[in-house]
Every structure is written in structure tokens, then in C-alpha cells.
Amino acid sequence: MLGCNLDGSLRVTNAGLRPDFPYRALPHLYALSQRTVRYIVYAQHNDGRSAVIKGPDDYDFLHIIADMREIRDAGMYVYASMSAAWPRWMSEGQPAYEMYHSWVSDPTTSDADLTWAGPDGSRWRLATPTERPCMWHPNIPHIDGAQVEAFSYAFASECADLIDYVGPDNERGGRAYWPPVQAPPYEVAYARAFDEVIIPFARGYRRGCTGGVATIVGPEADVESGIGYLCALEQERGYRVYDVLSHHPGYSWGSPYLEKALARSDEFMSTARKWALGRPIWSTEGWDFVADNGQMVDLFMESERRYPDLRGQFLFHPELVLFQDGARWNDKGFPFKLSAHGERWKRWVDGRETTKRRSVSK
Fold first, then answer.
1. Do the Cβ atoms of 155 and 61 come closer than 8 Å?
2. Are 245 and 276 in contact (CB under 8 A)?
3. pTM above 0.90, yes or no
4. Are 231 and 278 in contact (CB under 8 A)?
5. What is the CA radius of gyration of the chain?
6. Residue 332 neighbours by CB under 8 Å, 6+ apart
7. 285-340 tens-digit pLDDT
8. Start-end of H helices in the chain
9. Helix (H) or strand (E) holding 104
10. Gap between the terminal Cα atoms of the chain
């Protein structure tokens, strides 16, 4: 059993992308009852050091193996979570598609249409087809599921001994991931992703694991309907992908932050409970530029009280919430002194039973 209501699970920001992530921070996070790192694995990325897929049957796992060993050596568990679009060559020779983004900065955006508020006061909303026509293109090419399965088999064969939990996808319905589910019909986009990416990944990864045993987390939904769509597809396809159901309710999309975040959490939990069928439920991203850091601590505490069946909460940007001058997270001189909110967090987690540090690093 995992999570803030038991052991204070953690999502480390961009750990799979930033080679300068200060792993010396992990003991400090462990002291705050963080026990699990959600480690992001990029199939492809502009930074070549972070991409694990170089070409057909050509994968580079060395950098993520080194990172995951650092996490293990700190006595923590590894949740390896796939993110970013899959390489273009997996699209079976169809016309190449481009990465896309669905938000535009618009200072006149109303609270009702607000999707994100930047720390600089900028206001963002969804783009229209005219503003971002590539988002709404109806002919996004299909992905070759056999290539996804080949990758995930190799991934498990090389890395599964370092991984406790794995996620095949992130925010199917998110802003920068294939295919663009912002445009109806949503069911078509979810079904394509499920058949072409999610099922092939799960099958390949399970084949590559010793004894075929793996704990798969998903769907990392950023809209509550995403859980319903994808769990319904599990039933329709007759293949159970997820061992843990996960969602991202910590983004309020407006203010007052805590009120809206909890309202979103209620929606997520209602849908997740319907489809859980005995599976644990995790909240795997919790943070928001709209909130101050004290409200983030409030959200975790209230969620633990309100949802006794929520088995995991992962804190996004722990450096900003828990430590003084957290923006200097990567500086060598970062002192790891707790902020006032971090002190309150520590008093909270110290009052709860926490799981023990892993005794043996695989």
C-alpha cells in the first residue's frame, strides 16, 4: 500500500529529463515520509540525453538505469512513468505528425475558460481551431502497436528489476500528447490510444518481466471522464491493463484553489471508485500555480481525511512546497531548510504511521 495517507509518496519533477536533478535531495524527502518517486521516462524528447528510443530496436536505457539506482540507493520505490509523444517512425509510414500544444495566452480569459494561470500573472485558455489548426487535424497517423510492444518488452527486460510500478502513458487527453483528444469524438481518440499504445505497452512489459508479473499504473487522467473511457475499453477489449488507477485532480483550473481542486477530486474519485473493482486509487499529480504552497498542504491533508480509499498522493514540485527558496532546487548550495509549509507537512506526516525504508536495493 502506497501513498501520502500511508507513506507520503512523491512525484519528482522531470527527474527523467534533468540530468542535474540533485539526488542528494532524496534523503531529505525521505525524512518527510516520501517513499516513492514518480520517475518520468521520455520515449522521445528534444533533449537527446533523455530519450530512450533512438530507432527501431535501438534503445538507450543507461541514463535512466543510473537514475533509478540513485532512487533505490536512497531506500525509495520507483514508479517509472512514460511521457511525451511516441517517435514519428512508429506511424507506419504515414505522413509525419508534429507535437502540438493546445493553450494560448490571453489576458482577457475569463475564470470559466481558464486552463492555467502562470506565475507571471498570464492567463491561458484552450486554443481554437483557427488559432492552432494542427490540433484539430482529423488525420493524425496511427501508431504501430507492434513497435510499442517491442519497446516495452525491451524496457522490462533491461529495467524491470529496478522498477516497482510502471505507467504506459500520461494524460491521455492531455495537451501535448498524441492523439489530440480535445476535438470530438473523444471516444475515437481514446480507443486509438488504448489499442495502439496502452495495450501493446502493457503486453510487452508483462512479457519482459520475470514471471510476467508487473504492477501497471494508469491512466494518469487529467479529466475524470478519461478514467471512465479507458476502464470501459478494458472491459470491451477483454484485457485488464491497470493494476492501480491514477488521476491528476490537484489542478483546480481556477480559484478559490482548494474549493475547486476538491470539487475536481470528488469527480475523479466518484468515477475511479466505479471502475476500481478492488484496485488501489492514486492521485499522482498535485500542485498548481494558482495555489499558494500552504493550500497544497491543505489539499493533501483534506484529501486524506475525505477519501480514506485514496491509497497514494504524489506531490508535484516538492522543492517549491516544502523548502525555503525552493526555486533554487538545482543550486549546489541549496540548504534544504524547510519552509513554514514544510514544517507543517513534517508535523502532519510525523503523526502518521509510515512504511519502512526498503532494506535491499535491487
1. yes
2. yes
3. no
4. no
5. 20
6. none
7. 877 766 778 888 898 899 989 999 998 888 877 877 888 877 666 666 677 889 99
8. 26-30, 62-73, 145-159, 186-193, 199-208, 224-237, 257-276, 293-306, 318-322, 340-350
9. strand 103-105
10. 19
